[in-house]
């Protein structure tokens, strides 16, 4: 079994399982494997909650999961890190600590970070009516009572700082949504109108009798004369219990009687408030229970999404007459849930009644037309009415009657089971109830207004009650003694329900304003970089000479900024002759930094230059994290150079290459001149010749970097070599020149073929092959170099150079064999070893 | 992270001077400048759009239209969910360039890219060189959103982005239905070395 699936099955479709961790925690004094889950609601992902599940049997997940606790991940959660996990607790519930053993440090960090972020937006301590985490009330029974308490500690409130600032990094993230939601909430009055809806809720256990009486007094919330009849309410909610008699034979109910009741009440309501027309918008019955919702005709469009959910309270397989009808609807843009229940009877069944209340709140569920699930707690206003059947404890019948006669109701209510359970066992703890300043509703002699029937040990009690949760205002709460057909008196209540009515146009307007401030804030905080130039021309670039151009970067924004060179070599605009330094960096506000553009043309770059005239242009992208990208274009004005050029072009150019105003190849195409040997090559060879062939170390010693630089430049400009130019530097440049040629003097495939002929046949045959197949110009230059090198072998007594050694040095510059092989530009069919190539060349030097 | 909170990347492509930057500035900041500079780079701007189905956060990349930056555009459309191809209704050449952009997107762009075509400078309709019918039928043939816009007069700008937003939302709900979020579970128990060893013995 997959734990993720198992846990997901426990959640609703509208919820996301963000993290799941198998941890160890203390449960009933023992360490237990548990599932620690982080859950969010899809429509508001920043509202996260901690869920702790316990598999009923360890690792036998089929045994199901028990939801131990649900806590909103708000600033009330305190996390204390430990070496082997963490502790967490609820701020106002500091006696209980949950000790979690886990080695997942990331989980702890995630929790801490989220709480930190949430703290920015949380305006008030979390409580039952908080604007956030409404979805969590679906799991109401797993939320500790301390967490739900309505009366939050105001002292705490004032000491906590509320920052409520959107950080730049929160843009586009969940936290931004939290901020927006919060801002919309703050500005709610701008787009919502409170419609005070006058709602009458009545509950009555009719004891299976009737309908027969006038109910005008009930609907008008009138008992004694001193109570003015209520002016026409906007809504009337009628909750009946035992509207028909149930027996073991008739457990379904009595449709005829139900219809009678419905039409009777309907008529009576319309008679009670002449000049007004009421229409029934919702009705549901369950056994003896009947709920009806009437609204003024003019209001009917504002009541929507009426859904019902019935909970049967069967007891040990016996389907009794107890249960509840939960009915929900939207009243303008507020949500209302009405529970009409009939709970277990008898004084000694208080505990069972408690359980039944828990069952109702757990099982009463609605499916909205959006396919969303809601439970009874997920509503702005919840009214809990019915025959709750709670009695009076520990009092003799006589003393109860005496106190009633003396109208000492508050004394009696000390013994009221519901009040006690509310206080001591958190039953309906978050619900309010109006002051009871009226006679108990039960149990009267039928046909009398105020005579209690105490036979069968039935004491008078306030069985029939109306409680509420949410910010509704109770105007009246009482009973109708003058309705006499039942042993219960009808109980009435009148509420002012401030329903929110959103003006869609105003709401859109406020929303766009809030979005705009967020956007503005974001644009304000977005990184802003200023670059001194985005078009750079670099002139006087020379072969193998580093040139640096400096740009300045300035952070002109208010926040820290990170920049980086975005490499996109595959897009072909970045060139290897450019190195940007640094490639990334950070600037604080107003800081200025240098960006170095290092330009360097080496061998590879020089060769490409001759093939691709665009090669001296380059665009690179400087990106700013979270902001815009800059394109910086560089154009190099590069001096013509013999390095990287081809022999074929070079022989056509009598003037110094650096002085050319056009590309080398363009110029060569037009030129009619033709030398045998490029003047640059001849100059180097002549220089070395002039120094004799006897000195030791030629072609081997490194030479001087500065001198070499000047030799290269002199070759291109035609200037004389500097006075102190030496043979070591010169010999190095000669090798470099050959190595750099756009095309080698001997192409690798010719070399391969010649090598094979040499092996299988003879050197003269190989030589003939080359002479016949090589172009004239290359051949001439090749032999020119061979002849030149032979002079050194003739003087090997002095300089110690051998043909083998020289062949080894010159083979690669002359053939580019290895280079082209490595670059994949030449794929030999027969493998030719370096020694074979060297051998061929040394044969030329010997011959 | 939840899909809803992610930014939707939109890229604007089109020839230089067709009004890409002007469209973005009109949409994001409700401003218009006739002396706006050509874009050299890719400007990033953002905006939250309010829809009845929820909100969408646009991250908008306004690219440089000049030809020499052409190949860099790929960096921006490669990760986009939507592309707005802009042409100037008074300039036939820019319309042809727009078609080429579409061709490039088909060949090299991301799959499922939402494409919108904006015929900008609607206020200069008397100088129109590309008839709306032609552009519209081209848009239809490639399944693209088509809008005539004017950054100068605001005409069509909001609607252009709204239609894109709606299409993004639609696409997303399909995607999220296809890939149900995967989540890894780490367990204090399974990470204990002892357990791992036992497993080894069995194998
Ligand atoms: N009449 C008119 N002119 C517009 C409109 N939109 C843009 N322009 C003008 O067209 C010119 C170019 O606008 P930009 O927004 O810079 O064009 P662009 O597409 O961003 O150009 P690049 O950044 O170079 O790719 C500016 O002078 C704008 O004022 C429009 O709707 N109507
Ligand atoms: Mg632009």
TrEMBL record, chain A:
<dbReference type="GO" id="GO:0007165">
    <property type="term" value="P:signal transduction"/>
</dbReference>
<dbReference type="Pfam" id="PF21310">
    <property type="entry name" value="OCRL-like_ASH"/>
</dbReference>
<dbReference type="InterPro" id="IPR000300">
    <property type="entry name" value="IPPc"/>
</dbReference>
<dbReference type="Pfam" id="PF00620">
    <property type="entry name" value="RhoGAP"/>
</dbReference>
<dbReference type="Pfam" id="PF22669">
    <property type="entry name" value="Exo_endo_phos2"/>
</dbReference>
<dbReference type="InterPro" id="IPR046985">
    <property type="entry name" value="IP5"/>
</dbReference>
<protein>
    <recommendedName>
        <fullName>Rho-GAP domain-containing protein</fullName>
    </recommendedName>
</protein>
<dbReference type="GO" id="GO:0004439">
    <property type="term" value="F:phosphatidylinositol-4,5-bisphosphate 5-phosphatase activity"/>
</dbReference>
<feature type="domain" description="Rho-GAP">
    <location>
        <begin position="658"/>
        <end position="841"/>
    </location>
</feature>
<keyword id="KW-0967">Endosome</keyword>
<dbReference type="InterPro" id="IPR048869">
    <property type="entry name" value="OCRL-1_2_ASH"/>
</dbReference>
<dbReference type="InterPro" id="IPR000198">
    <property type="entry name" value="RhoGAP_dom"/>
</dbReference>
<dbReference type="GO" id="GO:0030670">
    <property type="term" value="C:phagocytic vesicle membrane"/>
</dbReference>
<dbReference type="InterPro" id="IPR013783">
    <property type="entry name" value="Ig-like_fold"/>
</dbReference>
<keyword id="KW-0968">Cytoplasmic vesicle</keyword>
<dbReference type="InterPro" id="IPR036691">
    <property type="entry name" value="Endo/exonu/phosph_ase_sf"/>
</dbReference>
<dbReference type="GO" id="GO:0046856">
    <property type="term" value="P:phosphatidylinositol dephosphorylation"/>
</dbReference>
<dbReference type="GO" id="GO:0031901">
    <property type="term" value="C:early endosome membrane"/>
</dbReference>
<dbReference type="InterPro" id="IPR008936">
    <property type="entry name" value="Rho_GTPase_activation_prot"/>
</dbReference>
UniProtKB/TrEMBL annotation, chain B:
<dbReference type="InterPro" id="IPR005225">
    <property type="entry name" value="Small_GTP-bd"/>
</dbReference>
<dbReference type="Pfam" id="PF00071">
    <property type="entry name" value="Ras"/>
</dbReference>
<dbReference type="InterPro" id="IPR027417">
    <property type="entry name" value="P-loop_NTPase"/>
</dbReference>
<dbReference type="GO" id="GO:0003924">
    <property type="term" value="F:GTPase activity"/>
</dbReference>
<protein>
    <submittedName>
        <fullName>Uncharacterized protein</fullName>
    </submittedName>
</protein>
<dbReference type="GO" id="GO:0005525">
    <property type="term" value="F:GTP binding"/>
</dbReference>
<dbReference type="InterPro" id="IPR001806">
    <property type="entry name" value="Small_GTPase"/>
</dbReference>
<keyword id="KW-0547">Nucleotide-binding</keyword>
